[in-house]
Amino acid sequence: MSAQFGTLLEGLTRQRGVRASLIVSENDGLVVDSNLRFGQDGDRVAALAASLYRKARRSAEAARLGSVSFLQLDAERGRICAVGGRGDLVIVVVADPSANVGLIRVELLRALESLV
Amino acid sequence: MADDIRRWSDELASDPSSLVFLQLGEALRRQNQLDVALKIALRGLERHPKNVEAHDLVARIAVDRRDFARAFDGWEAVLRLDPDHLGAMKGLGYVCFQYGRFADAERYLGEAAARGGGSDVTSALETVRRSGNTVAPATEPNAGDPQWLFADLLVDDGQTALLLDDNGYVLGGLYVDDEGNDLGVEIGAQLSGISDEVVRSARHLDVGTWRSITFETQVAVVAMAPAPGNALLVVAASRTTPLGLLRRLLDRCAERSAQWLAGQAVRGGEAGAGDEGGSA
Fold this sequence. Notes:
The complex is a heterodimer of chains A (116) and B (280). By secondary structure, chain A is of the alpha+beta class.
């Protein structure tokens, strides 16, 4: 983890139920920086989350809904939250289903502000 | 007041962890310096995330800025920390009233009244009840028309819901823009592609079956969920709608979709049986 994004990612991963936090390049799906719990495959998470965010952004724009600022995927055994919309970077959090997504959203939006 | 603000600002500058941000934020709010007040309050909240009054301050500033979504989140946070907080109940009642959620507004104000909220709460409660009673019941121009599948569930301006098949074609519901144009076909075609990506991501990330995806855009908040028979439910509302309310709307529409699709399947089965009988 680099010093540049370390504090930001640590702050996110400290949230209850968060398994991983990453900064990802939306265009190529590569990890810019990450804070992962043991066993998480950062490259895979980055690629899929970036792809999902990109698809949502393009679809929403095509549907004339404007650009996507926050995205949340809820699944049986986990949650993925992402924020972007400023440049190419997307901040991604992978969390347990029981995690407080409201708090995660607040932290993500705050992190996004400090990122740019 | 200006002296107080200067003094509190100095105090906060020398000790950023001081709780004086509460007084400073409130003073700025009263002076209608809402952007600065919000900034101060959010910084304070960052340092004191469990402070009930900090959440309350953010919510009150948000209401003054007509940012009802943030106000709702703020007062919900207050109630999580202090379930008996009268101000939060009154605030949530007000926000729900603004959204036309009269039943929710009545519930919050009723709780506030039960805890001794005073005459202003009683008066607000009466207003909410009157407003709730004067709202015309949702009409269904043609109950059999799939376009009106969700009509009675969509009570606020800007709320819309669509049920799509696995090709992105509209099965039921409407997607109406500000000018009343039905964009269902176009929106359905564009958004249905997201679900393929969602399925792929959920599978590869080993998080199990997906339940919903929610996203905020510049003009709307959108939630999608899988429906029986590989169908996809899309619900959208105006940008100011709190995500929690959107999720509730999604749940109600999902229930309606499941019932309707089951009904369609039964009718399809009956028709099929009838055809078989006719050809025998």
